[in-house]
Design goal:
Helix content: 55-70%
Shape: globular
Strand content: 5-15%
Distance between the termini: 42 Å
Largest sheet: 5 strands, mixed
Structural class: alpha/beta
Strand order of the largest sheet: 7-6-8-9-10
Length: 495
């Protein structure tokens, strides 16, 4: 088995250890085509003939291995284990390298990454060229010194913003949630987080978050997962003495907030594990989960009428797409609230995260372009540079309003589970109503707020944009759908 590639070893090792594999799942995990997966299986079958073992692919594209237990055990013992990061695709490898550079307290050599990812140093150099372009856009600088190594330099604030964005971009958000909620954890995601943070710390933070009472903030799953990352980053940076430092007046305002006191409850369980977060780090976390609040002098924003800005955007877009949505009260309210928190975030230099931005742009190319031009002009009045992430959210608000133009009433009671937040939930709500005449009252929930057993009884149908493990064969009313559902729906739990 010494002549197998890391990818072939990964597939074979998984099958030998009883992992449930599917061609489509492997296609997503490994970042290669289904044809390549089938070619790898054919190659493995040629090797396994000598051991009287065969890999089969059924009509559902599920993969399994068949043969005597002794033969399977013999192959397992002869198969060398490989680091999961060896099967990272090129983009995943670059994200992993950039993340490690952003948290490292010292320079790292190209040879270190070459060994770690099992690629030649020339490939790592090309990776660094791409990483350099990314960090420049984040107000950071990639430093390469001969015989010394590579590092990323810049403000601690910008480093953390870049790190969070990279982690969100590593895999589709459903894979990240699977890792966070320990539901069908993807090994590449697990490997990346263990590479950047300590596995023990990761499990500790998961446990702490489960007991942290932040329900009054109504955090969606994106913000909840973001908080998870930020706590890990704060712990890592504290150990490296790379802490955030905030002005005293900012901390004073934050101390009066309920969320600040609740976040301070982090200190006790972390302290029991020899992790001590400074006050500035607690304040930093508080800023993120209370991003609708103001922490700085309000005078800079006192003259901003967010409802007027929202009305201007809605009116201009209505005119350019020739669809009147100016009378949509819900849109005006949602967009006003969204812009208020966005202006604050961007004003103080915080990232606006949107794991669905590229998909939004793909599904609404014309609307996205119109809004990008429109918002860039409006935001420039306040010396704020808007990103495609933010335009993506605004596009979803407008898209939801457009879908509401086609709403149809019904009698069913529906629950929508959408980790992407209110804007993505709204667009799914409207699209479902336009496509299915039997849909009636629709409710919206974040993933971490649902109770499968209870909600499956209370609602006629549950639509989720991510996989929900029910653990029961009696629950049949949960359906997994795309936020941009058209005519096809995919059943998660079926009779």
């Amino acid at each position: 088995m010494d002549n197998l590639t890391p990818r072939q070893q990964f597939i074979l090792d998984g099958l030998l250890n009883g992992n449930s594999f599917n061609v489509d799942i492997l296609h997503e995990q490994l970042g290669v085509s289904t044809r390549t997966i089938m070619r790898e299986i054919s190659f493995l079958n040629e090797i396994l003939k000598k051991k009287s073992l065969t890999i089969f692919v059924n009509e559902n594209m599920d993969i399994y291995i068949s043969g005597k237990k002794d033969s399977i055990q013999d192959v397992k013992s002869s198969l060398n284990s490989i680091p999961v990061q060896w099967i990272f695709n090129k983009e995943q490898r670059r994200i992993a390298i950039a993340c490690e550079l952003l948290v490292s307290k010292e320079s790292l050599k190209i040879s270190y990454f070459s060994y770690k990812f099992n690629v030649v140093m020339g490939s790592i150099s090309l990776d660094l060229d791409t990483i350099e372009k990314f960090v420049i856009r984040k107000n950071l600088c990639l430093i390469r010194k001969r015989n010394h190594g590579v590092s990323i330099e810049g403000s601690e604030w910008d480093k953390r913003n870049a790190l969070v964005e990279l982690l969100f971009n590593f895999k589709p958000f459903e894979y990240l949630l699977g890792f966070f909620y320990d539901k069908g954890t993807d090994e590449t995601v697990k490997s990346l987080f263990n590479m950047i943070f300590e596995s023990g710390t990761i499990e500790l933070v998961k446990s702490v978050l489960k007991n942290l009472n932040l329900k009054h903030l109504k955090l969606n799953d994106v913000k909840y997962f973001n908080l998870f990352i930020l706590i890990l980053v704060s712990i890592k940076k504290t150990k490296n003495n790379d802490n955030i430092h905030l002005p005293e007046n900012v901390k004073e305002k934050l101390r009066s907030m309920k969320a600040y006191e609740e976040l301070k409850s982090l200190i006790e369980p972390l302290g029991e594990n020899n992790i001590n977060l400074p006050e500035d780090e607690i304040a930093y976390l508080c800023i993120y989960i209370n991003d609708y609040k103001y922490y700085y002098d309000d005078s800079s924003e006192s003259d901003i009428n967010f409802q007027d800005i929202s009305s201007e955007i809605i009116a201009d877009v209505s005119q350019r797409i020739d669809v009147d949505i100016t009378d949509d009260v819900q849109l005006l309210q949602d967009l006003t609230n969204h812009l208020r928190q966005t202006f604050h975030l961007l004003n103080i230099g915080l990232n606006v995260l949107n794991p669905m931005a590229s998909e939004i742009e793909k599904h609404y190319p014309k609307l996205f372009k119109i809004l990008f031009d429109e918002c860039r002009l409006i935001f420039s009045r306040y010396n704020i540079k808007i990103s495609s992430n933010e335009v993506g959210y605004i596009t979803m608000h407008i898209g939801g309003a457009l879908q509401r133009k086609e709403e149809i009433s019904s009698k069913l009671k529906i629950l929508i589970v959408c980790p992407g937040g209110i804007s993505s939930a709204r667009i799914l709500e409207s699209k479902v109503k336009s496509l299915f005449p039997d849909i009636g009252t629709i409710y919206i929930s974040a993933l971490h707020d649902i109770n499968i057993e209870k909600d499956s009884r209370e609602y006629d149908l549950i639509l989720s944009t991510v996989s929900i493990g029910t653990g029961s064969e009696e629950i049949h009313n949960i359906i997994e759908v795309s936020p941009f559902i058209r005519k096809r729906i995919y059943r998660v739990s079926a009779p």
